[in-house]
């Protein structure tokens, strides 16, 4: 490659199975043509059958990773994934105020409010949800909850387009610039409609539902693809549309691996 690529930072947990978390983010950044950097928050022990446990990284080590790359290499856009504890979230929020995330004055931050794996294992200590709501949402360019996370964050049970819109409004009250309420978990909807809103525009993004159980790492992959597009100066609606195309292709090419749930495939 000639010249310097755009850069994207993921602040997230490691997945030993290589399907989600940091590993999915780095693969996606690579596939999208940006240089990926990492601030690891936790190390999970997991395979296709689920998460067996995790150990969190000390908050000062998490923040040192962010500062090290931001001050030297520069971060064009960042995303948060699994953050594990309230202490890590507090440290990350404080650090985001100290370093520049984004090429211009405006911060480019995607907050994926990861709470649990699809196999039902907690990836966030219970008391930490409030820290995500109060400390990260107000700093976010975009938040990308799935319907389980929407229920945890707002109490809204999304069952149709109207409740999806209501959930978007409730989430916007928490302070992010944009919210993407992902509809993939609404199995009654064959189109997996995601709703993107900044409180003025309500953009419905229909998609295709693929019949596969291999969707491990899907949320991470979509959020990383959006982050890569923000790093390349796309506006939020265009970045989300690009992320949606990317995740559809990744789910279409997901593969079985191990006895359980295989990963989506962010290879192009
Ligand atoms: N492990 C890590 C480190 C993650 O960040 C995530 C999701 O964000 C998961 C596991 C769960 O992935 P999934 O729910 O797609 O199986």
Automatic annotation (TrEMBL):
This is Bifunctional hydroxymethylpyrimidine kinase/phosphomethylpyrimidine kinase. Keywords: ATP-binding, Kinase, Nucleotide-binding, Thiamine biosynthesis, Transferase. Catalyzes the phosphorylation of hydroxymethylpyrimidine phosphate (HMP-P) to HMP-PP, and of HMP to HMP-P. It is an enzyme of class 2 (transferase). Coiled coil: none annotated. One of its GO terms (cellular component) is cytosol. Its EC number is 2.7.1.49, 2.7.4.7. GO terms for molecular function: ATP binding; hydroxymethylpyrimidine kinase activity; phosphomethylpyrimidine kinase activity. Pathway: Cofactor biosynthesis; thiamine diphosphate biosynthesis; 4-amino-2-methyl-5-diphosphomethylpyrimidine from 5-amino-1-(5-phospho-D-ribosyl)imidazole: step 3/3. The gene is thiD. Pfam families: Phos_pyr_kin. It catalyses: 4-amino-5-hydroxymethyl-2-methylpyrimidine + ATP = 4-amino-2-methyl-5-(phosphooxymethyl)pyrimidine + ADP + H(+); 4-amino-2-methyl-5-(phosphooxymethyl)pyrimidine + ATP = 4-amino-2-methyl-5-(diphosphooxymethyl)pyrimidine + ADP. Residues 15-264 form the Pyridoxamine kinase/Phosphomethylpyrimidine kinase domain. GO terms for biological process: thiamine biosynthetic process; thiamine diphosphate biosynthetic process.
């Amino acid at each position: 490659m000639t010249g310097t690529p755009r850069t994207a930072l993921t602040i997230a947990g490691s997945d030993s199975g290589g399907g989600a978390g940091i590993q999915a983010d780095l693969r996606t950044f690579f596939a999208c043509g940006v240089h990926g950097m990492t601030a690891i928050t936790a190390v999970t022990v997991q395979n296709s059958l689920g998460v067996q446990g995790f150990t969190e990284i000390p908050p000062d080590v998490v923040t040192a990773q962010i500062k090290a790359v931001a001050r030297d290499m520069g971060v064009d856009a960042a995303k948060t994934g699994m953050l594990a504890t309230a202490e890590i979230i507090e440290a990350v929020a404080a650090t985001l105020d100290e370093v520049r995330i984004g090429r211009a004055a405006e911060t480019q931050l995607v907050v994926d409010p990861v709470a649990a794996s699809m196999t039902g294992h907690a990836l966030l200590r219970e008391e930490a949800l409030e820290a995500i709501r109060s400390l990260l949402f107000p700093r976010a360019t975009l938040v990308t909850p799935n319907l389980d996370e929407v229920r945890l964050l707002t109490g809204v049970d999304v069952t149709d387009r109207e409740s999806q819109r209501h959930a978007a409004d409730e989430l916007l009250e928490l302070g992010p610039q944009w919210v993407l309420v992902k509809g993939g978990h609404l199995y009654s909807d064959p189109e997996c409609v995601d709703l993107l809103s900044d409180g003025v525009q309500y953009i419905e993004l229909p998609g295709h539902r693929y019949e596969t159980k291999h969707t491990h790492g899907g949320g991470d992959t979509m959020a990383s693809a959006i982050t890569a597009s923000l790093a390349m100066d796309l506006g939020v609606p265009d970045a989300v549309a690009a992320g949606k195309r990317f995740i559809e292709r990744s789910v279409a090419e997901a593969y079985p691996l191990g006895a359980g749930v295989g990963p989506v495939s962010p290879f192009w």
